[in-house]
Amino acid sequence: MPDEMEGFEPERYELREPPVHEFALSRREFVEVAGAGLLISVSGVTAWAQRGRGRETSTSGTLESRLHIAEDGMVTLLTGKVEVGQGSRTELAMAAAEEMRLPLERVRVVMADTDLTPNDGASSGSRTTPSTVPAVRSAAAAARELLLEAASRQWQMERGRIEVRDGAAIDPGSNRRFGYPELARSAELAAAFKQALPAGAAVTPVKEWRVLGTPHYRLDGRDIVTGAHRFPSDIQRNEMLYGSVLRPPSYGATLVAADLSAAKKMPGVTAVREGSFVGCAAPTSFAARKAVAAIAATAQWETREHPSSERLFTYLKERAVKEGGDTRRPRVQRKGSVEEGLAQSTRRLRAVYQVPYIQHAPMEPRGAVAEWEGGRLTVWTGTQNPLNARGQLAQAFHLAPEKVRVIVPDTGGAFGGKHTGECAIEAARLAREAGRPVSLRWTRAEEFMWAYFRPAGLFEVEAGLDAEGLITAWDFTNYNAGTAGMETPYRIPHTRTRFLYSDSPLREGSYRGIAATANHFARECCMDELAGAAGKDPLEFRLANLDNARLKDVLLEAAKRFRWQERRKQRRPGMGLGLACGTEKGSYVAACVEVEANRGKGYLRVREISMAFECGAILNPANLRAQVEGAIIQGLGGALTEEIEFENGKLNNGSFAKYPVPRFRDVPPMEIALVNRPDLPPVGAGETPIVVVAPAIANAVFDATGVRARSMPVRVKASTS
Amino acid sequence: MSTTFRFTINGKARSVQTDAERPLLEVLREDLGLTGVKYGCGEGQCRACTVLLDGKPVTSCLTPVSAAAGKKVVTIEGLAAGDRLHALQQAFVDEGAMQCGYCVPGMILTAAALLERNPRPTETQIIDAMNGNLCRCCGYPRILAAVRRAAQGGENA
Predict the structure, then answer these.
(1) Digit-coded pLDDT (tens) for B45-83
(2) Touching check for B137 and chain A: CB below 8 Å?
(3) Topology of domain B87-151, per CATH?
(4) Whether B45 contacts chain A with CB within 8 A
(5) Where are the domains of chain A?
(6) pLDDT of A525-534, one tens digit each?
(7) Whether residue A713 has a cis bond before it, omega within 30° of 0
(8) How far is A439 from chain B (nearest CA, A)?
(9) Do B137 and A234 touch (CB under 8 A)?
(10) Which ipTM value was assigned to this complex?
(11) CB within 10 Å: which end of chain B, N or C, has fewer?
(12) CB contact under 8 A, A664 and B36
């Protein structure tokens, strides 16, 4: 164990920012909130303090907070988790069906409605599988126990002689059945469901799984292909208006003056300014945009200096917080003595790596529909953290949290980019002004500029090798990128791992795998450089410095599928092979890639990728494969093309035309090995596969060109100097 | 300035009175309730907003409503024959060709136009036809499998 362990927070970029706006109360609203005659001020802080905390699923509560059994036997599972394409709806339905011994189509899932669903935390950090699935399985197993208990009593029969299958308790002797519909009609059930969740109902062992462990696609696939599914931006309400918001011309610009009179004269338009918020609602989006454009033409802004991406990494290093208060002090983990380890080494290596800001760019930009009724606010919005959004809305409008209902219809992508509720706040402000429901959907340009970014990072690494090619020292410093996946999994006697906060020029937040991608890029590229310094094959070098059996397993599996050793011997000009491995959020991944690269032409293409991934027992192999494929291809974007460029407070490439993301043509042949470990508890899988894509490519580029690529995105071009 | 525009939408004659400059996308969604048509970028780069205009796939975000006047518009809502899904819709379900699903209507309509003019496309022809459509979940392999399946009469490719 490290001698000076100070555990890194798993993710520091879970946004903890207050809502973007906090609006004044009218006298009437004040009375509604605070009660007539009370003159104490109503602070939003209370509501804010009650926002959803953490990502863990609550295991307290009653069975009825988790499950409802209808008299026709349909089971409704309630969960605070959201579906953003990661497959949580299907996975949770499978968990309930498994334990209740029900066909999957008899389980319906109600997700993320703060009036109805329990607190399962945010949908982030790959926590649904390790945290919510067990909670759902326990509750469903408890319901199955009730069924068994009721049948046993009704038939005066020992429980051990009764089977539960096909949604019913069955007496194998007489074939009589007592099913969930019968249970639903019993008064006992109602009473039992109001009790605290019974503990100790045994969940089904992996080897007996019938639903879990089998492939299932999205349960509502038909609604998706017919266009019937309503995403947050598709919700339509009676008398609904459409909104548009005035945005500053640059980061940090403040509004000095704006004339709303022209906008207010437009037919059907409601225009509002409060503080920095200016927006319009109108019968069509087109009319709302025209109204905002009229205001924008009169708006005066005070701009301020803003650093450019050109000198981003210098800026991050200059602004690094070396000492500081409680929250921004450096995070350091030490084992042994790096100085000693370096002194023992026969060879030393120093390298610097850079990772830029990138944007999530989910297909559906932020969207919300807000509706006020009798002092209560309901919003439909795409957020990964409905309780946090509810807290932000409550604070912005000085409401008790229970006066705010946040509903998250299955949403058009998130990737860690939708942890907040800013669009809902804007829609709600417009709806309050207009006295009618308002739909607001951010434009792509707004989503690029005003949503938060994956943090940029600068890395300085120094390492030492002994004569045998074993690593003696590892000194790793990360500026700004975050701590996820920062600790080296290799066997190194002397290490120092540091994370330094900096002043980010852009608004930062989570992302698929967040900092683990940046930390793995720096570490796995450096491992390759060390292998080269030791004169060893990159695979052999890693294995020689690794004890972790699960990590070795995926590394060997990926190498075997790729035929790493054989292909390393058959060198072809212009082609390079690279690999990388890693672990994050309890799962293990390795990838081998082949690239074709030509420095003269600046040409780089990934020709093949082979990945092995292990996340414990596999719950839904079809969805797991989709998640791994998606993570690899999405990872190609960050590895090869994606990089936010900004200057004078504006983005230079805030559009799909200027910010290329992976398309059909960019998909290389992929071989994916899903390593199933039924003996290990399942952990989340949506994020970790992305972390090895970029370093494997960078290492292959070196193999092809002899020149190290130390920045993301990886580019090859002949040096001009 | 309002003008009346008439067109055939999903087989039915419809008319709307509206500003000629409004994007077809917004008229379909806001005036006609056809929310299967998706906004993705407003610049024709992602094709989530694809509809068929006289059988040809167009980006409805860049198509003014006036350009659709007198034409036949098909949206994702109009592709199935009653309860019977179009072969592509069925293939997307059978191949699980969706993660968040937001890009799927545009994908299916783009592929429908391809299969209409080329019922047996090669792999390269499929990729060329679909390359303008973005999927940020990056579910491209399954989408390709679904288009292949539909092109082969519902058989798994």
Answers:
(1) 999 999 999 999 999 999 999 999 999 999 999 999 999
(2) yes
(3) DNA polymerase; domain 1 (1.10.150)
(4) yes
(5) 63-224, 319-357+453-705
(6) 999 999 999 9
(7) yes
(8) 10
(9) no
(10) 0.98
(11) N
(12) no
